[in-house]
Amino acid sequence: MKAGTTYSSSDYNKQPGWFNLLNSVWLKTYALGTKSTLEIESLKKAAIKATGLSDFGNFWEEPLKVMLKSINEEAKLHPIGQFIARQRIINLLAVRLRAEDYFKKYPEILEQELYPCMVIVGLQRTGTTKLQRLLAADPDNRALLSWEALNPAPLKGDDKTGKERLKIAQTSVKALKHMSPGFFAIHPLESEAPEEDVLLLDVSFLSTTTEATMNVPTYAAWLEKTDQSPAYEYMVKLLKLLQWQRPAKRWVLKTPHHLEFLPMVKKHFGDVQFIWTHRNVQECIPSFLSMVSYSRILFSKEVKQIEVAKHWVRKNGYMLQKALDYRTKIEADIIFTDISYNALVKDSLVAIKKIYADRDEIISPELKNILEKSNNENPKGKYGIHKYNLEDFGIDETYISEFTKEYQTFQQTLEQ
Length: 416
What we know:
Elements: E1 6-8, H1 17-28, H2 40-51, H3 62-75, H4 79-105, H5 108-111, E2 117-120, H6 128-136, E3 141-143, H7 146-150, H8 163-179, H9 181-186, H10 198-201, H11 209-213, H12 217-224, H13 229-245, E4 250-254, H14 262-269, E5 272-278, H15 281-296, H16 305-327, E6 335-340, H17 341-346, H18 348-357, H19 365-377, E7 385-387, H20 397-415
Parallel strand pairs: 1-7, 2-4, 2-5, 3-4, 5-6
C-alpha cells in the first residue's frame, strides 16, 4: 500500500494469502465449536464482562435483533468476518455501558448545549473526506476523530486525552492495512484524522454501516421504514460526551447517511449548516460501489458486484431523493452550501471561503495559512491510485440515471 500503486474495482477479492489460509483452516474447525457467536444475549454478556458495567440505558434492542437475524441468515460471513462482526458489536455495546456510566457520574455532560454543526452531507466519493479534513484544520472546529469514533466513551483507567483508545485505533488501522491495502486507496483511514459520525449512530444499531459492509437486505429494508429518532437522540448525547472531553466552538460532521434523514439532523442538532458536495453520479457512484466491494470481502467471500450495484444504486438514488424532497420544503433560515467536487479539487480555499461566507464569517490570514498547510498534507493518491470500471458491476450509465434523474436535473440548475 503505497503511492503509485493502482487498485482496481476488479481486484476487490484479491486478499493476502495468509487471510485466505486462516479462513480455510478456521472454517474446518467449526465442528469443534470455534465459530464466533452472533446472538444478542451472548454479545451483551461479553460487553458486561469486558466493562464490569451492566446499565445499557434506555436501550431499544429491536434494531440489534433485526440486524443479527439478517447477518446470520443472509450475510454468509467467513470465519474472520464472523469474528470481526462479533468484536465490533461487543465494542458498541461496551461503548453504551461506559457512556451511561459517565452520564451518571457527570450529569453536567448532558446539561451542555450541543455546539453549532457544520454537517457535510454529500454522497460518498464526492470530496467529503477532503472537505472535512480541511474544515477540521480550523482550531475553532471540532471533528470526530477516528479513535473517538471507535470509542467515544473513555475506557477504564483512560482519561480525556484518550491515550488508550488511540492505541486501539492504531492497532485497528494496522490490521485493516494488512487485510485490505486497496481499501486505503479508496478511503484513507488514519487513527487521528476525522472520521464519519455514522459510527456514532452504530451505537444504536440504526445506521447504513452494516449494509455497506455486509449483504443484509432484510435489515436494510427494515431500516428504511424505521424511525431513526433513538439513534439521533443518542448521537447527540455522545457528541456532548465528546465535546466535554475536548472542547471547541462548533462541530464539523460528515456522513452520507444524513442525506436520508435531513429533517432528523435539523431536529436534533439544532443550529445546522448543511454542506452538500456534488459530483457527477456516473463517477462517484461507481467509485463507491468499488469501496463497498472492498469492504464486504473483509466479511464474506460470497460478494457479487452485481448485487452490490443493484442495492446501492437504488439506495443512493433514494437518499438523494429524500434530501431533495426536504430541501424543497425547508424554512428560509436553514443554510445549504453547495460545493462542487471539481471546484473543491481545483481550488479548495475558494470552496472553504464560500462555506464561511454563508455563515457570515471571513477567513483570517492565519486560518488561510493553516488551511493551505492541511491541503498540502493530504494529496490525492497518498495511499495508492483507485481505478473503477462500471462494467465490473454489470450495469451501465443508463441504470444509474434511472435512479438519479431528478438529482441530475437539480445539479444542472446549480451549474447555471
